[in-house]
Structure formats: structure tokens, C-alpha cells
Amino acid sequence: MITMTQSKRINMDRNSSKGNQLKWFDAGNWYKADYLGYEGLSEYIVSHLLEKSTVFPRVPYEIDKISYQDGIYKGCRCAGFLHGGQEVLTLEKLFRLEWGIDLTNVLAPMELKERILFVVEHVSLLAGLENFGAYLTMLLEIDAFFLNEDRHMNNIAVLRNVNRTFSYCPVFDNGAALFSDTRISYDLGLPLETCYGRIEAKPFNRSFDEQMDVAEELYGVHFYYWFTEKDVERLLSDAIEMYGTEIVNRVLAVMRQQMRKYAYFKKEPPGL
Predict the structure, then answer these.
(1) How far apart (Å, rounded) are the C-alpha atoms in residues 19 and 100?
(2) Which of 22, 53, 57 is nearest to 39 (CA)?
(3) Is residue 187 classed as helix, strand or coil in its secondary structure?
């Protein structure tokens, strides 16, 4: 357990569309408290499974308990990944700073394919990232696979370097995956079928599969994994003491279903 003080608390501008988590920065590490359910567990599971995938760069998370003021919170931590004066620029902020436009409002009247093409073409122009279409497709693929419902334009980002060049941002902030919101949308008593019926994707379409399919048609498939159900079970066994059997069993059931649905993402480990 780590103890946090008010002086270490951070107010971020990349808030979830469902609310604001408590966040802190201390000794080179970021900490987030669970706000709506088991966000810390989702960050932990997703990030560790992505270690056995083609997703790179990525940020690994660990679950942790956080003491703050009069409460003890479940949550997660990760090491800071900015170096040499880098800063994170969300796509919303990038377009606002460079062109003075609200990206979400600009995309609203467009059709799905037009939205994706607009973002890729203009981020490539503004940031000089030639393969941004592949990167964006990868994000949409892992969001569909892990059911991350919070990938809005303030949760897709690039890194601006001190010399004003740009780099790809590591994949992070997957706390809204795996039906982690048990307070508002996905109560633990709900059948999974109901949860699947309620969930809506972002940022281009309410359907994970529709926005992913269009991106893959344009830029190809870019997410493959070689983790197994045993890997999922092992990670969850390490988390059962903190999160309990009911949550762990639900996450396991969701992962089993997603691995069956998206079997085409599965491949043999490198070197085999």
C-alpha cells in the first residue's frame, strides 16, 4: 500500500466521459484510484496481456492499494513514460492548438469512413506520423477486443518532443475495459448479455466492430496476440485477494468470450 497526500494529487484534462478518478504522481510513478468499479484491475489485465501481442509501445500497470486522507482505495500504478521534456497531446488538444477547431464537433456530421480518414490524414499532416492509420486501427482493435468504451478524442494522443517533433504515444488508459464500471452501467448482478447489449464504442461509431472493420479495410489488421486462457487465469489469480471472486470470475468469463469472438487475432508466439 502507498500513502498519498493532497500535494501529490494531479488534476488531468483527459478525464473519463463518466467522471474523474483520483490521480497522483509520486517518485516517477502515476497512481489511479478505482472510481466506478474495478478500473485498476482492467488496467492491470489489459496491459499485461498486451505484453504477449504486437502492440508496442505500451505501458504496464500493477494493481495497488492507495491510502489517501481518510480512505483506502483499490487502484493501480504505472511508471511515467515521458522523457526529455516530452508532453502528451490528445488529438482534441492537438487540433485545438494547431488549428483552433473542436475535433469532435468537426467529425460529428461525417460518415464513419470519412471520420477515420479525416483524423488519419490530418494527424499525419500535423504530427508527421506516416503510419498513424495503422496505430489508430490497432487502438480500435484492442478496444473491440477488451471492450474499452472510453476511447474518445481526449483518450487518443501523440507525444510532442521538446524539439516540436512528434512520436507515437504508448498504449495506456484502458481502465474502462472489461465492463469495469459496476456503479453506473454494468452492475455485477447483470447478466453478461445485458452488459454486451448496453456497451457503446467511441470515438467514431457506437459499434466496436463497425469502426474497427472500416479501419482494417483502410489500413489492414495490426493487432495480434499469443496469450492464452491460462495467462488470463494466472493474472486473475494474483488479483483475487484484492478484487474478490465475483469480479475475477466475471472478467474471466468476458475474456473467454472475447477470445472466442476474435479468434482471428490469435497467432503463434514469435520464433515458433
Answers:
(1) 26
(2) 22
(3) coil
Q: Average pLDDT in the 144-157 region?
A: 97
Going by C-alpha positions, the residue among 64, 38, 47 that lies closest to residue 227 is 47
The C-alpha cell at 40 is 485498476
What's the CA gap between 5 and 102, in Å, rounded? Answer: 35
Reported as a pLDDT band with limits 50, 70 and 90, residue 21 is confident
Q: How many CB atoms lie within 10 A of CB 190?
A: 15
Domain boundaries, the chain: 2-79, 87-219
What pLDDT, in 10s, does the model give residues 41-65? Answer: 999 999 999 999 999 999 999 999 9
pLDDT at 4 over 90: no
**What per-residue confidence (pLDDT) applies to 83?**
92
193-206 pLDDT per residue, tens: 999 999 999 999 99
Q: Is the pLDDT confidence value at 17 over 80?
A: no
Distances (CA, A) of 252 to 3, 76, 182, 234, 245: 30, 19, 16, 10, 10
Residue found by looking up cell 479525416 in the block: 118
Cα distance between residue 12 and residue 55, in whole Å: 25
Q: Show the cell assigned to 144.
A: 473491440
Q: In the beta sheet, which residues pair with residue 71?
A: 68
Angle at 81 between CA 150 and CA 203, to 5 degrees: 20
> For domain 2-79, is the CATH number 3.40.50?
no
For residues 199 and 165, give the distance between their C-alpha atoms in angstroms, rounded to a whole number: 37
Nearest to 210 by CA among 116, 121, 146, 122: 116
**CA 199/CA 177 separation, integer angstroms:** 10
Q: What is the pTM of this model?
A: 0.95
What is the total residue count of the chain?
272
